[in-house]
Structures are given as structure tokens and as C-alpha cells.
Design brief:
By secondary structure, the chain is of the alpha/beta class. Helices cover about 35% and strands about 25% of the residues. The structure holds ligand PMT.
Length: about 400
């Protein structure tokens, strides 16, 4: 079986020495690693070192006689399952963002269709320079992934953000990207709508009611669906998370906003997964000005019920449409979730007991159970990414069964 292939581009940062360890660790993890050194990188680490650590010929010169393949940059670009550039300088990012292909690395990265992962390392001021930031933002918008530099001592003698990320993080992100590549494209041609995050219900111009949802669960589902080939519509409450690349995202604030955004999205969707935690109540009368302290008197807020978004989507459910809801419970998980299944016209519900360690709000893992009228399937603790795939596997199976009827 062909080993997964990483092309590792190394540019002229003092952190180039770390590329040797990265190459070695990727080889140990079972990858075939081909290194390309820029001219500046060769001032900081040798071709011989990278060849020894990767076990493959290292490529440095566009016009040198080919070492392995006739048209080396094209063959490498095709061969890559993941293209990693570590460390990546401001100069490299600038060239990539401008479409400059004037050496072996920039030419090969331009020719690849593999996911590109860029681990930044540079002086803080260079990193913060608006030109660099604009280049990063542009490349992000076309799907290039970045591993942000970390705070640390820099070669120039200053301390600041610019240090290459930890080797562990670079290797893990590369292996994760590899794993993603292996996903089947079984949602191609389907539209998946996903809700994520909390909502905010205003009290006055500066205060609001919200909850602990980080959006991690919903974003993981959106990312997984996108990787599996779906068109993804993500409706997100306020979160600190970045929009997953390739996903169409609408940001909303309140539960009513969520309803307004989800209804048209659900009309287009074959599968709707509602992982958001919309507030069940809003303030009956939002104060037009900041509310002042009440001189020690109790302060009473009157709340009024918000629309049930999932119920509204359920009432408009189409034939051959799959609706998946979540149930965030702190007690009587099964009984409460079953009630929601019927009330919201859901095909199945993902119940999570949000009091369990490693489950629920603002963690990277979850412990869930799938529940429908045929019974319950308890799942072990797993990452939200892994759970996202399990949810989509099940939703797709339900959809196919409906279509076959
Ligand atoms: O975002 P994270 O930090 O990763 O946390 C993930 C999560 C805990 C938020 C997620 O796993 C989860 O459980 N989401 C559902 C939260 C919730 O609102 O549960 P609920 O039991 O109150 O609602 C049941 C279902 O109805 C949910 O699909 C919810 O999106 C929906 N709902 C709820 C209230 C409302 N007014 N309208 C709705 O549509």
C-alpha cells in the first residue's frame, strides 16, 4: 500500500533546524516525506541533513538534473497528500499570496491540489505587518491552513509572537490533515445545514443573556460534512471560532435571528443538524439605555419564551429530509430526549449529559447517545470531530433509507 506522502517545504527562517525533527517524526508516523529547501533555507540547514532525516532525496534547485522524476515539481505536487511548509517566512507567504512561482518550492506549492499547511515563523513586527496579515487572510480565504506562530524568544533578540509552533502541534496537524484526506466523499451532491454556538438575548445596550456553548460541536459537524463533499450552510451564534474553510456561514445573535437564518437554509438542505444552544427565553422588554443599579433593591427581569427553532424546522420538514437535533440534559437524559424527538419531528437525537466530565460545553470531546424510536445507541467518549462523523454516518444512512422507500 502507498504510504501517505507529505511534501515538506522549508524556508529561510532560523527555525529551519526544526524541519529536521518534523521530517523525522513524520517518517516515524508512517509517511513518505519529500523535502524542498529554498535557497535561503540552505543557509540554515543542509540538504544532507534533510535527506538523512527524511530518507528521500532532497530537492533544492529547479534546474538541477532530476533526482527522482522527470518533471519533479509537478510529480511532487501530484504525489503530496498534504503539503506542509515549516517554517514559513513572511517572504514565502507574500509570494504564495501573489501567485509568484520562481523557485522549486513556490512552483510546487502552486501546482498542488493537496491541502496546504503553513507553520509561520518570523519577527513579530513582520508578522504583525498589515501586508503579512492581508496575505494570511487572503490565503486562508482560499483554503490554506495556518499554524500561527507562538510567543517566545526570537532570533532577533526580542520576545514576541513569531516563534515557530511546537513540533508536536505541527506533526499532529499534518497527520490530522492526512486523516481528513482519507474521508470518503459520500456527501457529494448533498446540502447539509448545521447550527452551532449559543445565542445572545439583549437586556440593554451593553448586557445580554447567553450560555456556555463554544460552537465546537457544531463547527466540527460543519467541517466533517464539508470534508465529505457536502455543500455546508453553517448558522452560527457568537463564537470565538473561525469559519471552517469552504463552508457558507451566516452569523446570528439571538434565537429569533437563528430561526430567520435557519428556515431558508433548511429549505435547501437534505440534512439539518442542530447543535446550537439557542436561548429558550429572551427579555420581554429590552431597555433602550444601560440599566442603572437599583440601590440595593432586587432587580427583576421578565423573560418571555423564544420560538422553538427545531420545532419550526420540523413543521416544514420535507419528504426525504433528515432532521437531527441535540439534547443537552443534566438529568433524565433518555426521557427528556425522547420528548424532544417527537415534539421537533426529528429523525434522531444526539443526547449529551452536559454534567459528565469530557462532555458538553466548551470541551473538545463529547459523550453522546443516539436516540430514535427504535432505541438508544450509547457512544463512548470521543473527540467532537469523531462524533461529527458518526452523526453524519447515521444521518446519511437514514437519508438513503428514506430515498429507497
Ligand atoms: O458548542 P459546544 O461548546 O461544543 O457545546 C456543544 C453543545 C453542548 C451545545 C451541544 O452538544 C448540544 O447539546 N447542543 C444542544 C443544546 C440545546 O439547546 O439543547 P436543548 O436540549 O435545550 O435543545 C434541544 C434541541 O432543540 C437542540 O437541537 C437545540 O438546537 C434546539 N432548540 C433549543 C431551544 C430553542 N429555543 N430552539 C431550538 O431549536
Amino acid at each position: 500500500m502507498k504510504k501517505p506522502c507529505v511534501v515538506l517545504g522549508v524556508t529561510g527562517s532560523i527555525a529551519a533546524y526544526r524541519a529536521a525533527d518534523i521530517a523525522h517524526r513524520l517518517v516515524k508516523a508512517g509517511c513518505e516525506v519529500h523535502c524542498i529547501l529554498t535557497k535561503s533555507a540552505q543557509q540554515l540547514i543542509t540538504e544532507r541533513t534533510m535527506e538523512t532525516m527524511s530518507g528521500q532525496p532532497c530537492i533544492t534547485d529547479m534546474f538541477a538534473p532530476p533526482k527522482q522524476w522527470e518533471v519533479e515539481h509537478i510529480e511532487l505536487a501530484k504525489r503530496a497528500d498534504v503539503f506542509l511548509v515549516a517554517p514559513a517566512t513572511a517572504n514565502f507567504v507574500g509570494k504564495m499570496a501573489s501567485g509568484i512561482a520562481d523557485d522549486m518550492l513556490t512552483t510546487t506549492v502552486m501546482a498542488t491540489k493537496a491541502p496546504v499547511l503553513v507553520a509561520l515563523a518570523m519577527n513579530t513586527n513582520m508578522y504583525e505587518n498589515p501586508v503579512t496579515q492581508k496575505n494570511i487572510a487572503y490565503l486562508r480565504s482560499i483554503g490554506v491552513r495556518f499554524l500561527e506562530p507562538i510567543e517566545g524568544d526570537l532570533a532577533c533578540g526580542t520576545v514576541g509572537k513569531g516563534h515557530i509552533p511546537e513540533t508536536d502541534d505541527i506533526v499532529r496537524a499534518t497527520l490530522d490533515a492526512m486523516e481528513e484526506q482519507r474521508q470518503p466523499k459520500d456527501l457529494t451532491g448533498l446540502t447539509v445545514a448545521v447550527t452551532a454556538g449559543p445565542t445572545r438575548e439583549p437586556i440593554d445596550p451593553v448586557r445580554y443573556i447567553t450560555n456556555k456553548s463554544s460552537g465546537k460541536m457544531g463547527y466540527a459537524i460543519a467541517r466533517a460534512a464539508q470534508l465529505r463533499g457536502a455543500r455546508v450552510l453553517l448558522i452560527s451564534g457568537p463564537t470565538a471560532l473561525e469559519a471552517p474553510a469552504g463552508v457558507e456561514m451566516v452569523r446570528v445573535e439571538s434565537t429569533k435571528d437563528l430561526l430567520d437564518a435557519l428556515l431558508p437554509a433548511a429549505e435547501q438542505a437534505d440534512i439539518v443538524v442542530q447543535a446550537a444552544a439557542p436561548a429558550d427565553y429572551r427579555v420581554a422588554e429590552v431597555a433602550p439605555q444601560k440599566i442603572k443599579k437599583q440601590d440595593g433593591e432586587p432587580f427583576v427581569l421578565t423573560l418571555t419564551e423564544n420560538p422553538d427553532v427545531a420545532k419550526a424546522v420540523g413543521e416544514n420538514k420535507r419528504e426525504n429530509q433528515v432532521l437531527v437535533g441535540f439534547a443537552a440534559e443534566t438529568q433524565a437524559v433518555r426521557a427528556n430526549a425522547t420528548r424532544k424527538l417527537d415534539k421537533k419531528h426529528l429523525d434522531f437525537i444526539v443526547a449529551n449529559d452536559v454534567t459528565k466530565p469530557g462532555a458538553g460545553f466548551d470541551v473538545d470531546t463529547n459523550i453522546a447517545a443516539f436516540l430514535d424510536h427504535d432505541g438508544i445507541e450509547e457512544l463512548p467518549l470521543m473527540t467532537k470531530d469523531a462524533l461529527a462523523h458518526r452523526i453524519l454516518d447515521r444521518a446519511l444512512a437514514v437519508l438513503r433509507a428514506k430515498q429507497a422507500r
